[in-house]
Design goal:
The chain is α/β, with parallel strands linked by helices and 416 residues long. It has helices at 4-7, 36-49, 59-78, 95-110, 129-138, 155-161, 184-193, 213-216, 241-246, 281-297, 299-318, 347-356, 369-375, 391-415; strands at 17-18, 21-22, 24-25, 89-92, 116-120, 141-145, 166-172, 197-201, 220-224, 235-239, 257-261, 264-267, 323-326, 337-342, 359-360, 362-364, 380-384. 41% of the residues lie in helices and 17% in strands. Helix 5 links the parallel strand 5 and strand 6. Helix 2 packs antiparallel against helix 10 (281-297), helix 3 (59-78) crosses helix 10 and helix 4 (95-110) packs parallel to helix 5. The structure holds pyridoxal-5'-phosphate (PLP). Pyridoxal-5'-phosphate binds next to helix 4.
Length: 416
């Protein structure tokens, strides 16, 4: 069990006041807060180790290189990459860049006119736009699987749309709006049986549940450090080794070559073939501290804590008048993300009232405009939880929502 009250002491920002009230941070799907261990790792790196990696034959450079490469190995273990081989882990700027890397490097080489990329209506723009761009360039098509009324993927439709034309299936593991956890192991098996590749957008799953890339059959997995206690500016792409070896580089420059002559170049081995230029050394090293922190607690424990919070939130929120909740009814079928609307109040207005009470949620289309259209809304409000959140914070959210409803009800009455 997580003792969230105790654990909160590890997060300096959580003792902040916002508009004279204690911060209630419920915007974790956007980015999470950082424990002292991560902040200190960053500071320690700059105070004791800062040097460029892989190049220098001096102590600082060797230490920085070792620390950076150690994190690669930690990531390989964290997601249970085959044989925990670190060369299958590439560091990018974020999940978005990781997906762009696959679309550009793999898609640029392998997609042909008439090929299909199978996506879903619940994807984040990060797992849509890179595919739109490469599809247009290559004359390929994007195809979409719908959801049902509870926010689950329509698997029968998925099976029908998975054809010999499908060259890659790219699906989010967990929806950043609905919280739905998709049956990625089943999707992975279907994709492989159909002879196609499978990319998993793990931005909303790797931070929240135990990840095993082998179990889910992912050929590629993308996620971001900043959504799992780590610093901004670090993303991860896991790729099956033979795919990474076969694909051409994504970006060109220093570090990613083995030999350069005038007009010609040969590529470095994986993973360095995909890490052109000086990488985000300091933040990758601090990400290592975030992984240690999560691993110490255990991802099963993290998931259980979030399920308890979401179960409580669904119960107390659904008792509010005029509230519409989106996504699966059962907490075990979702992550700690709860999207909602209250009557006709615009989510931005809700968010503003909550902010005046120190409560941070997100309002808008959540970079999922096709899903908003599918839900027939322009926007939703979204509360999203993490390991340091408590049921008391959900009570504060509910109280503030009641106030918002009263206030806007009054505004509507005085207008008519
Ligand atoms: C499902 C999903 N995929 C991808 C992303 C993109 O993450 P980043 O902005 O860190 O690249 C997000 C961010 O919210 C997300 O929720």
């Amino acid at each position: 069990m997580i003792n969230a009250q105790k654990l909160r002491q590890d997060f300096p920002i959580l003792s902040r006041q916002i508009h004279g009230q204690p911060l209630v941070y419920l915007d974790n799907a956007a980015t999470t807060q950082k424990p002292r261990a991560v902040i200190e790792a960053l500071k320690r790196y700059y105070e004791t180790t800062n040097a460029n990696i892989h190049r220098g034959v001096h102590t600082l450079s060797e230490e920085a290189t070792d620390q950076y490469e150690d994190v690669r190995a930690k990531v390989a273990q964290f997601i249970n990459a085959p044989e925990h081989d670190p060369s299958q882990i590439l560091f990018t700027r974020n999940a978005t860049e990781a997906i762009n890397l696959v679309a550009r490097a793999w898609g640029g080489e392998n997609l042909k006119p008439g090929d299909e990329i199978l996506l879903t209506v619940m994807e984040h723009h990060s797992n849509l736009i890179p595919w739109y761009l490469i599809a247009k360039e290559k004359g390929a098509r994007t195809v979409f699987v719908d959801i049902d009324e509870q926010g689950f993927l329509r698997m029968e439709e998925f099976k029908k749309k998975l054809t010999s034309r499908t060259k890659i299936v790219a699906v989010t593991h967990a929806s950043n709006v609905l919280g739905t956890i998709n049956p990625v192991a089943e999707i992975g098996k279907l994709a492989h049986d159909a002879g196609t590749l499978f990319l998993v957008d793990g931005a909303q799953s790797v931070p929240h549940l135990p990840m095993d890339v082998q179990k889910i059959g992912a050929d590629f997995l993308a996620f971001s450090a900043h959504k799992m206690l780590g610093p901004t500016g670090v993303g991860v792409l896991y790729g099956r080794k033979e795919l990474l070896e076969a694909m051409p580089p994504f970006l060109g420059g220093g570090e990613m070559i083995s030999k350069v002559t005038l007009g010609e170049a040969a590529w470095n081995e994986v993973p360095w073939k995909y890490e052109a230029g000086t990488p985000n050394i300091a933040d990758v090293i601090a990400f290592g501290a975030a992984l240690d922190y999560l691993q110490e607690i255990g991802m099963e424990t993290v998931q259980k804590h979030e399920q308890e919070l979401v179960s409580y939130a669904l119960r107390v929120l659904s008792a509010l008048e005029e509230i519409v909740l989106y996504g699966p009814a059962k907490p075990e079928q979702r992550t700690g993300v709860v999207s909602f609307n209250v009557g006709t109040i615009h989510p931005h207005d809700i968010s503003q009232i909550l902010d005046s009470r120190g409560i941070a949620i997100r309002a808008g289309h959540h970079c999922a405009q096709p899903l908003m259209r599918r839900l027939n809304v322009v926007a939703t409000a979204r509360a999203s939880f993490y390991l340091y959140n408590t049921p008391q914070e959900i009570d504060l959210l509910v109280e503030a929502l009641k106030e918002a409803r009263k206030f806007f009800g009054h505004v509507a009455r005085t207008r008519t």
